[in-house]
Every structure is written in C-alpha cells, then in structure tokens.
Design a protein that fits this description.
The structure holds three protein chains of three kinds.
Chain A lengths: L2 H12 L1 H8 L13 H9 L2 E5 L3 H12 L4 E5 L24 H12 L6 E3 L8 H5 L3 E5 L3 H13 L17 E7 L2 E7 L22 H6 L4 H16 L13 H18 L6 H9 L6 H20 L8 E5 L5 E5 L15 E5 L5 H10 L9 E6 L2 E6 L4 H7 L17 E5 L7 E7 L2 H7 L1
Parallel strand pairs in A: 1-2, 1-4, 2-3, 4-5, 9-13
Antiparallel strand pairs in A: 5-6, 6-7, 7-8, 10-11, 10-12, 12-13
Chain B lengths: L12 H5 L1 H16 L2 E5 L3 H11 L5 E5 L6 H6 L12 H10 L6 E5 L3 H7 L9 E5 L3 H13 L4 E7 L2 E7 L2 E4 L18 H8 L8 H4 L4 H15 L8 H14 L12 H13 L7 H7 L2 H4 L7 H14 L19 H33 L6 H9 L5 E4 L3 H5 L3 H12 L3 H19 L8 H18 L9 H9 L5 H20 L8 E5 L4 E5 L2
Chain C lengths: L3 H4 L20 H11 L7 E4 L8 E6 L11 E6 L10 E4 L29 H13 L9 H9 L1 H13 L1 E3 L2 E3 L5
Antiparallel strand pairs in C: 1-2, 2-3, 3-4, 5-6
Helix pairs in contact in C: 4-5
The chains are: A alpha/beta, B alpha/beta, C alpha+beta.
GO molecular function (chain C): ATP binding; NEDD8 conjugating enzyme activity
Catalytic activity (chain C): [E1 NEDD8-activating enzyme]-S-[NEDD8 protein]-yl-L-cysteine + [E2 NEDD8-conjugating enzyme]-L-cysteine = [E1 NEDD8-activating enzyme]-L-cysteine + [E2 NEDD8-conjugating enzyme]-S-[NEDD8-protein]-yl-L-cysteine
InterPro entries (chain C): Ub_conjugating_enzyme, UBC, UBQ-conjugating_AS, UBQ-conjugating_enzyme/RWD
C-alpha cells in the first residue's frame, strides 16, 4: 500500500479550500498577516478551542470548527438530549435521547471528520477551575443562560495578567466569541477580555425575563399567561399536590397536566381563553422558540470569527452583530463600548503593599488614609479556599458586631497570604475593588528606618 | 362556559419534536412545510447546509439533482459526505446522510445534469415548491431561471466564494397573509366605534368608579372619554395636531384622582393612557398598500384560475366598499393593558365579536365568488385568518433572474446607481458576476491554480460587465485581487451561514409566513456586513 | 488586532497553575452585593440579620414599623440573592404571617420592583424602602390578599382591628396568625 503519502495527499486536497485563504495574501488582510502553511498547522495541531454548550448553537459550532481545520476542540455541556432538541440539534437522533449532549456531539463529529480530536465534558462550566480554562486559545460559547455567560466572562477576566507597569499582558487574553438566538433573531460578538466590551458591560442588551405583576396574577388576570403564572407562583405552594417537599418541575408531565388543568379552571372562571398545553409549558419552562436556520447562521458567524482570531487572515468584527430574519434578512454590526465602571472588566486588580505582620486594622486604616484610596467606610471581604469570607463591614450592624474582632488579628491569622486578593467596597468607588496584598520584605522595611 | 379539561394532555411525539418551531409558525405553518418539496441542484457544502436546515424542521420531501462525483476537496468542506464517499455520486451520498437527520422526510436523488433535465424533461421541475441551486454556470442559470419563471416555480440561486456569499430569490408573485410584524398597530376604532363598542364606552362612567377600580379602568376607555370631552368643545373635530394631542393629555391628567393633599395618585392605567395618546389617536384608515392590493387588476379581473389570495382580496374590496364604509374588517385583537378582569374580557369579546361578524360577511362574499367562478371553495378558517391579518397583507412581485443577467436598461441603471454611491456590497455583486463570467470563459474559478495570473483576466471580465452597464472601471483592483485570492474556495463557515439564511427563506416561501428577502442578499464575512438589493 | 497565532504557539497544559493564581475569583453578583450591603443605609425601623456573616447572598430584613396600622409589629423578610444578580432581582419572601393587602398568607409580596419593574440600577436599599413603604401605606388597589384589601377600603376601623388581632396572634376569618408584636 502506498499508505502515508497517499493519506497525506488526501489531506492536502481536503484542506484545499482553506489553504487558499491561509497561504495567499490579499489586499484586505491585516498588515501583520503573513501567509504560510504554518497557520493551518497551528489551527490543526496547536490551537485549542473550547466550545461551551452542545445545544442548538454548540452542535453547529462543533461541525463548523471541525470543517475549518480545528482539531483540538473541547466541548462542555451539562445537559442530556431531549426530543424537543431534534428539530435543530442535528448531531442527535431519537436513539440518543437521555444521553450526554457533549459526548454524543463529539462522537459524531470525530467520526464524520477524520482527524478531529474533540473531547467531551459532561458537566457544568463551574466544575472546572482556572487551570482548565487557561489551556485554551479561544473560547466560543453558544448558551441560553445569562448566568453561565456571566460566569464564563468572569473566569476569562480573572485569567488576565498585568505587567509590572500596569499594562495588560496580551498573551493572557483568551478571546471569547459569543452567540445567542431567540426565534428568528440572533446576535454574535467577539470579546477580547480587558480590551473590548465584555458580557457584563452590555448586560442591559439582554432583555429581562418576562414577568407579570403578582397582584394582577392574583386578582385581575386577563391573559392566559396570568392563569398559568397564578398556578405556578401561588396555587402550587398552597396545595402542594405532591407533598410539601416537591417543587414544581416543568419537565414532569404529571406536574404539567396538573398546572394545565388548574390554569384552565382559573381561565374558565374569568372568561379568559387560550390556556393550551403549549402555552402552559411555555410559561412554566420559559421556553424560547428556536429553529435550525437561525442557529446555523449565528453559529457560522461565530465560527468565522474564531477562524479569523486563530489565523489573523482577516480582521475580526468590531464587535457585536445583531441579526433579524423575520422580515427579510437583516444584519447590523456595531461597536459595543467597554464600560469604565464595568463590574467585570474594569475591575483591574490593584496592589497594596503591607507588612506580613500587619493587622486588618492596618489595612483598614490604609484604605481610609492612604492618598490612593481615601475611603469613608470600606467593607472588606475575601475568598478563602473557595468560600466567601467577610473580614469587616461597618455598615451592617450585625456583621460589624461579628467581624469587629478581625480588625485586631494579623492578616495571616485571617487566612490571607502574600498575593491574596481582598475585595473592598466603599461609597467612594463605583464598584467593589479587588486589591492584591503584597507582603513587603522585612529588610526593605528595616532599610527605610 | 366551563369545558371539561382534558385528562391526558400529553402532546404527540411530533408536536414535542417540533415544539420550539411550532411556537413560530404554528401547526398550520408546519402542515404547509410538510406538504413542501424542495429541489436542490448540486450538493456542495452550501447546498447541503441549506438542506440540513430544511430537513430538520420537517419539510415533506427533498430531491437532489447532481451529476458530479465526490472529491477530497468536497469532503473537506461538506459535512454530509464521508471519506468513503469519494468517487461516488455526490447527490446520492449527500442525500443518504441528510435523510438521517429526520426520518419523516422523503428523499430522491437524480444523477443527471441540470442542462440535460432542461433539455429532456423540463416538466420535472413542476413538482417542486422551491428549487435551490448552487455552483451553476452562467448559461444554465439563465435557462433554468427562465424556465422556472415560466412554470411559476420559486427559485433561489446561491453562491459561496471565499468570504463572500449571496442568494437571489426569484418569485413571480408571493402573497403573505401572516407577515408577523414586530410592532402591530392596534385596530381600536375609537374614532368610529361600532355599535357594541360605542355602547360599552358610552355607558362607562368614570366618576362613579370606586377608587380601587379607578386604577383598573382600561386606557381605551379613559382616552375615549378624554377625546369625547375635547370634541364637545371643539366642534366635534378629531384631535390631530401636537397641540391638540397635548390638550388630550391635559384632560387625561385631570382624570387622575388626587389624594387628600391634592397630589395625583400614581396609577399605572393612566400612565399607559398617556403613553398611548400618539398611537390611539391615529384615525382608522385604509392603508395605501392594502388599497393597492384590493384594486390590483388580479383582484378585479378574477378568473377560475385566480388564487385564493386574489379571490379574498376581491371579497375584501367588496366589503370595504359596502359594509366596511371604506375601512378594513375589524382585526379583533385587543392589546394587553392594565384592566380589571371583567372590563378587559368584555372589551376583548366586543372586538372579537365584531371581527367575527366582519369576517363572516367577507366569507359569504368569498363563497359567492367561488360559486360564480366554479372554482375551488376556500375554507372559513382561511378567510378568518386573512381578515385577522388584513392590515398587514404583503405581496412581492418578483423579477426574472435571466432578465437580470441580460443587464437590461432598468437593471443596468439600478446597479450603476449603487456603484456611484459607492456601495461596496454592489461591488461584491459585480465581482461575483465577473467570477461567474470568468468560469464560463476559462472553465475554472479565477485564481483556482494561482492568483497572480488570473488577475488581468478577471479584470477584463469586470470591465466588460461595467461597460455593459455604462459604468467606468473601478479605480482600484483590490476586490479583483481578493477574488483571485479566494480562487473559488468554498469556506465551510461562510456556506453554513448562507445555508442557514437560504433555508430560512425557503421555509418562508413554503409556509407563506414572514416576509422573504426581495430579492438579493449579499454577505461579506470578512467585514461582517450584508446588504439587500432588489433587481 | 491581537495576534493569537504568533502570541501563543504553545499554551500551558491543563492543570498548570501560576503562583497566586489559584484563589477563586469573586463573581459579578458577589462584587455587586458586597457594594450594595456596604452602602446599606437602613431606616431606623429596619435591621438586618446575617445567619452566616460570610454569606452575603442570604440574609433577613426585619421591619418594625413605628407608625401606621402595623406599629409595634416585627416582620421578617428573607432575601435570597441569586447568581444572576443584578440582572434579576433578589427573591424576597415575608416569613411572618401578616394580615396585609399586598402580602399573601404564603409570604408572597406584591411589590413592583421585586418583579416586573426591577432594573439592575436598583439596589437592596431600594427594596428595603419599598417594603417599609408597604407597611406605612398598604395599597388596596393592587391586592394580593383581596379580603384584607376590600376591608381596608370599605371599613378602615375593622381592618385596623383585624391587623391588631393578627399581630397579637389569633384568627382573622379562617386564617391563623402567629403573634408578631415586639
């Protein structure tokens, strides 16, 4: 058999399309772009991409990236496959219902695209620590949860390293490409942590969850949604149909049937029409409509941006694209602005030098008196062994009483160490500050005396 | 009133599978999709990505026409081919792998060239709801588009080259009843209340309402009372100007109850009323685009070939001219507003009943027309839906691609106008056309082997096109260089994006819901920019 | 433009850690609630209780009105601040059974900023003031306990008597109320 050389020929031809973009220069390329076969080698053999979510967007992303040459792809998803996923999550079949989305998706793509070495993680994003996330060059996310996006955003911000002169160490930046869809609408964006607008900067672009006034729900319902909400918020807790400890579960068909029946009773009583199975389920589970085509388009935009980031073959979008496919097909790209008071990306860690023997009171005094801080009544907390710890807070009486003794303690007695972060909130700053403690060396102190 | 609630409301398997999309186009949209048959010409990555998003939601059937065999390059960009597919017919391999996505979809593969089918069996295309084609030559594009135009089959022509993608929809005539506008103007008739509404509003006395109910008076009532009060002092005129609207706002503020210290009590319904002043004072009128529709010759000169849409338009015209007194039927939807349950439900029923009465009148007219024409009857459900959406009917009158390709004078001046702007997306259009011309002249994509040598040849294709539309040559060659750099490469993510969009448009055409692109969409993934042109 | 390809040919392998880089970072919700609480400016009728002073996400608010129908009572509210704070409001429940037009017997509270009118610029302080206001000015127009609301409107004296009875501990209609006088 002519074995290897033939396989290599096949491979050369397989990536023929992409190689044209990577091995040829063009008038619109970034000036720093140098066409070379090494770029394909980089995306195939070095570049590690994390895909967060293996649902509507995640399945598409995984396929798109595998066919753009990426091999070292990791996928995280906590969910298992449901029947209602199959209208768009095209890597799954009816036989797969109940299995891990991440595993099924990875198995399928690795089989279909030879050479692809995708790895599945059937768990929550919070199950991994910084060490895990730091291994990736790019993170791309297709999630429907704002909480998860914010968590991931915070994680990537915490991986940023700063040089001694306070400038950002660019090699610590892990770009985040984020996509989202709702029905016929979607958005895609590129976030360079520390450099461009992050998830937290633009939190108000996410529509608030649909809620109904409780008094309307309780007393003056007029929409079918009000009837379902009544059963969900008020009647369930009153009647506890499955016993006190059983929470309402929108996925349990018996629960759903119970809610539907009660909601219909309430609707009939008030002459309200339109309480159907579909509507009830939609309100209970806060279902967002989804269709294959929108997911395909948005995921593809994200994959293109990942490709641009990894190869520099073209400048990235700057930096937020919205898309509406309800009336024609409309896209609009704009520059979402980084907020100087952002909780996540403008929370640049400051360094405070203290003596290793210092007490918390010394830090407190420094925060109040030091020219750099001039705080009025700083509240100080930290995280030790993954747990939040309140060190001192004067504004809340009950906490003040129980943390007052901490002031006398040495920082080391409180579990703090050289390099530990403390969080300081004060009326004088728009946000809680992160301050890294740096122990001064004893000799230095002696020398200054 | 009380109806027995179903004891076992479990959905069918199919409803569960399609739940997330049924919330967008409804059960009737799904039925329409399941009756659709899509033909794909050429199973390129762009082609299969398009089919994927049509098969997943459950189209009735697909047919792939492709006479080429699978190459290694195909495998590299096309997810619906396997390594073992190399050397086998591309259409049949793609079909096999795409059908795995949804067992409810029927599939066929035809291993012939489009030219051959056009020559030997042109009626073949009559079976399809939409024909989608990729990677066709200039000549075939013109012949196929002309044929599909003649037999009135919707056609979508698609391209994916480098970072560029485009699609062109060819529809002779496409009527959309459910256009799903984002912001629907409420149809409240406060300026000309029908009897039931007038009696409800007139019998409502703001002054006798108890305080606790005062906060639950629907804003429709409040605004009506304010207008009535204003009209008494203003010769029964209708408030139109900004000044007059402000006077209405003042009257509304006067209605707000005050506490013992004379401070207005904050009531949500009054805040809603003040916000509604602008929209609620718009007089009821017949929108121009609907007027054009119902007086369109197709609605006037009916034959037994007329589509249900035009028959209903004709009935609608008759209604407008008689019972409707110049207005459309009441749409029957009441916007959500703060209100007591009783008042809201009463109002809702008043509007719904009037809508039902109007729709019934139109249905009778439709029945008369179909009887006279001896054509197929139209169901009451369909007429009701038509009446419900009569304010937002939408009609696309398309143009033929072959005509666009001939660059007739209207097309030429349209393009020239954009090039003068200058509009970079129209430059992309010219380059895509020029690359197609290059392919037909040189039997390869520009830059396929190496970019430099083809630059001057592609440039001459561009110049030829520009001279055909009497435009001066481009001052710079950068886009020509870029096109040669692409060398006809099909980039998967670009095809995946375009595939999603094209599938979406095909579904709109098949379900007759939502408004399709009219008629050309061009996307540049390099700049994340897109544009729509109407040739 | 950031040049990933040239910047990072090789990434750290999984699990590698940098000195001082292992401390868990505070979430945006945590940073924000710390700020909210540090700036908490309670009216004199209100107090907070933190069962665990290290857990700033779960706490109780105690309101002891010094005027109005509910003077002399002591009402406990539980606050649960979720990971999506301040995109979503905290979950607030009244743990003291109270005869009140806007609080039902399950402890649900009808206060607009706790649901439909919540905005991320609002703080824990805004909610505290909103709750305090509910005791000073019960709002019968948007009731959760309709019986109480109707009574407040039709017969203030009777309503006041019932509030007093409920606070002393006893039945109002068929509902029993635990004593909650200070």
């Amino acid at each position: 058999m002519a074995g290897e050389s033939q396989t290599s020929d096949h491979n050369q031809r397989r990536w023929h399309h992409i190689k044209k973009l990577l091995e040829r220069s063009g008038p619109f390329c970034h000036p720093d772009f140098e066409p070379s076969p090494d770029i394909l080698d980089f995306i195939m053999n070095s570049c590690k991409v994390l895909v967060v979510g293996a649902g509507g967007l995640g399945c598409e992303l995984l396929k798109d990236l595998a066919l753009m040459g990426f091999k070292k792809i990791h996928v995280i998803d906590l969910d298992t496959i449901e029947l209602s996923n199959l209208n768009r999550q095209f890597l799954f079949r009816k036989n797969d219902i109940g299995l891990s989305k991440a595993k099924c998706a990875v198995d399928f793509v690795n089989k279909r695209v030879p050479g692809c070495e995708a790895v599945a993680h059937h768990c929550a994003i919070q199950d991994f620590d910084e060490g895990f996330y730091r291994q990736f060059h790019i993170v791309v996310c297709g999630l429907d949860s704002i909480v998860a996006r914010r968590w991931l955003n915070g994680m990537l911000m915490s991986l940023l390293q700063y040089n001694d002169d306070g400038s950002l160490d660019q090699s610590s930046i892990i770009p985040l490409v984020d996509g989202g869809t709702e029905g016929f609408k979607g958005n895609a964006r590129v976030i360079l942590p520390g450099l461009s607008a992050c998830i937290e900067c633009t939190l108000d672009l996410y529509p608030p969850q649909k809620t109904y006034p409780l008094c309307t729900v309780a007393n003056t319902p007029r929409l079918p949604e009000h009837c379902v909400e009544y059963v969900k918020v008020i009647q369930w807790a009153k009647e506890n149909p499955w016993g006190n400890s059983v929470q309402l579960d929108g996925d349990d068909p018996h629960h759903l049937a119970w809610v539907l029946e009660r909601a219909q009773e309430r609707a009939n009583k008030h002459g309200i029409t339109g309480v159907t199975y579909r509507l009830t389920q939609g309100v209970l589970k806060n279902i967002i409509p989804a269709v294959a085509s929108t997911n395909a388009a948005i995921a593809a935009v994200c994959a293109t941006e990942v490709f641009k980031l990894a190869t520099s073959s073209c400048a990235n979008m700057n930096n937020y694209m919205i898309m509406n496919m309800a009336d024609g097909v409309y896209t609009y790209t704009f520059n979402a602005e980084k907020r100087s008071d952002c909780l996540a990306c403008s929370n640049v860690t400051r360094v405070m030098e203290i003596e290793p023997e210092a007490t918390l009171q010394a830090i407190y005094n420094k925060l109040c008196d030091d020219q750099d801080y001039m705080m009025k009544s700083p509240g100080i907390t930290t995280i030790i062994n993954g747990r939040n710890k309140t060190l001192y807070m004067a504004s809340v009486k009950s906490i003040e009483e129980r943390t007052r003794d901490n002031l006398k303690k040495k920082v080391t007695e409180l579990g703090l160490y050289n390099g530990a972060d403390i969080l300081v909130a004060d009326i004088t700053t728009p946000n809680t500050l992160t301050i890294k403690l740096k122990f001064s060396e004893l000799e230095d102190i002696e020398m200054t005396h | 009133m009380a109806s027995p609630s179903p004891k076992s409301p479990e959905q069918s398997e199919k409803n569960k599978q399609y739940d997330r999309q049924l919330r967008l186009w409804g059960d009737h949209g799904q039925t329409a999709l399941e009756n659709g048959h899509i033909c794909l010409i050429n199973a390129t990555a762009l082609g299969t990505e398009t089919l994927k998003s049509i098969v997943l939601p459950g189209v009735g059937a697909i047919t792939i026409v492709d006479d080429s065999t699978v190459t290694d390059e195909d495998i590299g960009s096309n997810f619906f081919l396997e390594c073992s597919s190399v050397g086998i017919n591309r259409g049949s391999e793609a079909l096999r792998l795409i059908l795995e996505l949804n067992s409810a979809v029927q599939g066929h593969s035809v291993q012939e060239s489009t030219d051959q089918i056009l020559l030997e069996n042109p009626d073949f295309f009559k079976a399809f709801s939409v024909v989608i084609a990729t990677a066709l030559g200039e000549k075939t594009i013109q012949e196929l588009s002309q044929h599909l135009w003649d037999i009135n089959v919707p056609f979508i022509l698609c391209r994916s080259v480098g970072f560029l993608g485009s699609f062109r929809i060819q529809l002779k005539e496409h009527a959309v009843v459910e256009s799903h506008p984002d912001n629907e103007q409420p149809d409240l008739r406060l300026d000309m209340p029908f009897p039931a509404l007038k009696s409800f509003l007139d019998n409502f006395d703001l002054d006798v309402v108890e305080l606790k109910d005062h906060g639950h008076i629907p804003w429709i009532v409040i605004i009506y009372k304010a207008i009535e009060k204003w009209r008494l002092k203003n010769n029964n005129q209708w408030p139109m100007s900004t000044k007059e609207k402000n006077e209405i706002r003042e009257i509304i503020r006067d209605f707000i109850r005050k506490d013992e210290n004379g401070i207005p009590i904050n009531e949500e319904n009054f805040a809603e009323t003040l916000r509604a002043v602008n929209t609620a004072l718009v007089p009821t009128f017949l929108p121009v685009k609907i007027q054009k529709l119902i007086y369109n010759s197709a609605a006037i000169n009916l034959t037994n070939e007329s589509s249900p849409f035009w028959i209903m338009c004709s009935a609608l015209r008759n209604f407008v001219e008689t019972e409707g007194k110049g207005k459309l039927p009441v749409c029957g939807a009441l916007p959500d507003m703060t209100a007591s349950t009783d008042h809201y439900i009463q109002l809702q029923n008043i509007y719904r009943n009037q809508a039902a009465i109007d729709a019934e009148a139109i249905y009778r007219k439709v029945q008369q027309i179909t009887a006279q024409l001896h054509c197929e009857t139209i169901s009451e459900t369909e007429v009701k839906l038509f009446c419900r959406h009569a304010h937002n009917l939408y009609l696309i009158k398309g143009s033929c691609i072959a005509q666009e390709y001939r660059l007739e004078s209207s097309v030429a001046s349209y393009i020239a106008r954009y090039l003068e702007e200058p509009n970079v997306m129209m430059v992309h259009y010219i380059l895509l056309r020029a690359a197609e011309r290059f392919l037909s002249e040189h039997c390869r994509a520009p830059g396929d082997w190496e970019p430099e040598g083809d630059i001057s040849k592609l440039k001459s294709c561009v110049s030829k096109l520009l001279s055909d539309i009497s435009c001066s040559p481009f001052p710079k060659d950068d886009h020509v260089h870029e096109m040669c750099r692409y060398g006809g490469a099909e980039i998967h993510s670009v095809s995946a994006f375009m595939g999603g969009c094209i599938a979406h448009e095909a579904i709109k055409i098949v379900t007759k819901q939502y408004i399709p692109v009219n008629n050309t969409f061009i996307h540049d993934s390099a700049s994340t920019n897109s544009a729509v042109f109407t040739f | 433009m950031i040049k990933l390809f040239s910047l990072k040919q090789k990434k750290d392998e999984e699990g590698s850690s940098r000195p001082g880089g292992t401390q868990k970072k505070a979430s945006a919700a945590q940073l924000r609630i710390t700020k909210d609480l540090n700036e908490l400016n309670l009216p004199k009728t209100c107090g907070t209780e933190f069962p665990d002073p290290d857990d700033l996400l779960n706490f109780k608010l105690i309101i002891c009105p010094d005027e109005g129908f509910y003077r002399g009572g002591r009402f406990v509210f539980s606050f649960k601040v979720g990971p999506n704070y301040p995109h979503e409001p905290p979950k607030v429940k009244c743990e003291t059974a109270v005869y009140h037009p806007n609080i039902d017997l399950e402890g649900n509270v009808c206060l607009n900023i706790l649901r439909e009118d919540w905005k991320p610029v609002l703080t824990v302080n805004s909610i505290v003031y909103g709750l305090q206001y509910l005791f000073l000015e019960p709002n019968p127009e948007d009731p959760l306990n309709k019986e109480a609301a109707d009574e407040l409107q039709s017969n203030r004296r009777l309503f006041e008597q019932h509030v007093q009875r409920a606070m002393r501990g006893g039945y109002v209609g068929s509902s029993y109320f635990e004593r909650c006088l200070k």
